[in-house]
Specification:
- By secondary structure, the protein is an alpha+beta fold.
- The chain is built from seven helices and seven strands; from the N terminus they run E-H-H-E-E-E-H-E-H-E-H-H-E-H.
- A seven-stranded mixed beta sheet has the order 1-2-3-4-5-7-6, sandwiched between helices.
- Helix 1 crosses helix 2.
- The longest helix is centred in the middle third of the chain and has 16 residues.
- The protein is globular and about 45 Å long.
- 32% of the residues are buried.
- The model has no long low-confidence stretch (mean pLDDT 87).
- It comes from Flavobacterium zhoui.
- This is GNAT family N-acetyltransferase.
- Pfam families: Acetyltransf_1.
- InterPro entries: Acyl_CoA_acyltransferase, GNAT_dom.
């Protein structure tokens, strides 16, 4: 395989529909909530060069895009996806690392954050220097939280006034300049336990 991970350009607009379908199918198979995006939205991210795409000799292999909030005070990486044909190869980590480094260049003063239920994404984030944080440390921009409306867990988020959900919030502050290895090592047992506690609290009948 000859996979390249590059900043999106006009020639990549044609992959927008496939990207959306792959993201949605992956969420359905995992049984997790997801904020849906349209091909038009994905293309806008490509146009503004706020996205990276992984290609294997022209075949779509993976994708991720950047969103900025509060006039660039915060940025988030969304839509991280790897095509089923390219999973279990470490490509997700490569894509995440690429978009992370690109974000530091394009938005050098921004805090980088994310919310996720995926342990694999938490592990990647932790390796990059993110730390788990309460939602109160993330953006307060209502537009960001409105993006969760299509998630199956949105009612939980609303009931907690956007302060808590099944997702875990993670944050990287460039001003902290984390050391290598990161100050907050990933502990899958702890996060698995946290996830199960949240599910017991929020999903109980």
């Amino acid at each position: 395989m000859n996979i390249s991970i590059i900043i999106t350009q006009e020639e990549h607009y044609k992959y927008s529909q496939e990207i959306c379908e792959t993201i949605e199918l992956s969420a359905l198979l995992r049984g997790t909530g997801i904020a849906k995006r349209t091909p038009e939205y994905i293309q806008k991210k490509m146009e503004s060069k706020d996205a990276v795409i992984a290609l294997d000799n022209g075949k779509f292999a993976g994708f991720c895009y950047i969103e900025s909030w509060e006039h660039g005070k915060y940025v988030a990486h969304s839509g991280l996806i790897v095509h089923p044909d390219y999973r279990n190869l470490g490509l997700a980590k490569q894509i995440k690392s690429k978009v992370f480094e690109y974000s530091l260049e394009k938005y050098p003063d921004a805090k980088i954050f994310g919310i996720t239920t995926g342990l694999a994404v938490m592990k990647i984030n932790s390796d990059l220097g993110y730390k788990p944080v309460p939602f109160s440390e993330l953006t307060t921009d209502p537009t960001f939280w409105a993006g969760c409306k299509t998630c199956t867990n949105f009612e939980i988020l609303q009931s907690k006034d956007n302060k808590m959900c099944l997702c875990t919030g993670m944050l990287f502050d460039p001003k902290e300049k984390p050391k290598d290895p990161p100050k907050h090592p990933f502990n899958i047992r702890v996060l698995n336990r946290l996830k199960s506690i949240k599910q017991a609290l929020f999903l109980k009948k």
